[in-house]
Design a protein that fits this description.
The model has no long low-confidence stretch (mean pLDDT about 95). The chain is about 35% helix and about 20% strand. A hairpin with a 2-residue loop joins strand 2 and strand 3 (about 25-35). It is built from twelve helices and 15 strands. Helix 4 (about 100-110) runs parallel beside helix 5. The chain has two domains: about 1-90 and about 260-290, Rossmann fold; about 100-250, Rossmann fold. About 45% of the residues are buried. It has about 300 residues and is α/β, with parallel strands linked by helices.
């Protein structure tokens, strides 16, 4: 049996274990939340190192990407340093391939995203490949990194302008504690409505689910959402708010969709090639029958 564990800074309330038959072998997927405690997360990583087939880093990235530049995230690198033998991934390989390709996949299946549609991209630094694909499709972006990451009412409306701002600020921002940039632990269970006009303007809302949910308005009627890391309860919450289509890069298992770090860790475990080219991931997921989740909620 291959064992994949996602160690997350998120709430332990979202923990789960799932055993599956994949490509003729058993696969055990586990998620362990550290509740926002970096020291506890570091200990979990040390304890699991060398005992599992692949580790996923959840709730925090190793790098943030703007254009062709990647910036090391201080807390992410410190956590990665705890792991010496087991392959460790943060989901960036999935975000730059599978999530990027979701745009053309959806255009073929559903006829959107379409040119001129407004997309609220809650964090382009976290999913730059998806943001690029949406802009190339002719979508009008509202880039929400300053809104959702820093709490500042400063949207960006083009990747070119956003890149310039990112190049100037990321060397400083990446040194900040992750809690300044991202909701951790119990904050992931809270909803504090804010920036409602940007949700209202958008036809499509895309990106990290915890960013989307943290400021979620009560009414999302007719909106389409592209995200990941969902429980069945999260899906019900989106349905109750009127969301039309829900899309995730991987399939649903009992209503739950894995985070990108889990999908990448599964790919690494199955390929048995640490450091494998992420461009191999889309084909591998198709071969094992893991297609994107496309669900009509309303």
């Amino acid at each position: 049996m291959k064992r994949v564990v996602s160690v997350s800074l998120g709430s332990p309330r979202r923990n789960h274990d799932l055993e599956l038959e994949v490509s003729g072998s058993r696969l055990l997927i586990q998620r362990v939340g550290a509740g926002g405690n970096l020291e506890y997360m570091a200990q979990l990583l040390r304890d699991l190192d060398g005992k599992v087939d692949a580790l996923g880093l959840g709730g925090i990235n190793l790098t943030l990407r703007a254009g062709r530049r990647r910036y090391l995230l201080r807390d992410g690198i410190r956590l990665a340093a705890q792991v010496r033998s087991t392959p460790l991934v943060d989901g960036s390989g999935i975000k730059d391939t599978v999530e990027r390709d979701l745009v053309s996949y959806l255009q073929e299946k559903l006829g959107w995203p379409r040119q001129g549609q407004v997309v609220l991209m809650v964090s382009a630094l976290d999913r730059y490949g998806l943001a690029e694909a949406l802009e190339l499709a002719g979508c009008r972006l509202i880039i929400g990194d300053a809104l959702f990451g820093l709490g500042l009412p400063v949207p960006f409306y083009s990747l070119a302008l956003f890149r310039a701002a990112a190049y100037a600020t990321l060397p400083f921002l990446c040194r900040l504690p992750i809690g300044f940039l991202y909701p951790l632990g119990e904050k992931q269970e809270q909803v504090r409505p804010r920036f409602e006009r940007f949700y209202r303007q958008a036809e499509i809302i895309a990106g990290d689910f915890h960013f989307i949910r943290y400021h979620l308005p009560g009414d999302l009627s007719g909106k389409d959402i592209i995200t990941s890391t969902l429980t069945a309860g999260d899906v019900e919450e989106l349905k109750n708010r009127g969301v039309r289509w829900l899309v995730t890069p991987g399939p649903s298992f009992a209503g739950r969709s894995f985070g990108s770090n889990v999908l990448e860790a599964v790919c690494v475990a199955l390929l048995e090639q640490p450091g494998a080219d992420p461009e191999l991931y889309p084909g591998l997921l198709r071969r094992i029958g893991w297609e994107p989740r496309i669900e009509k909620l309303n």
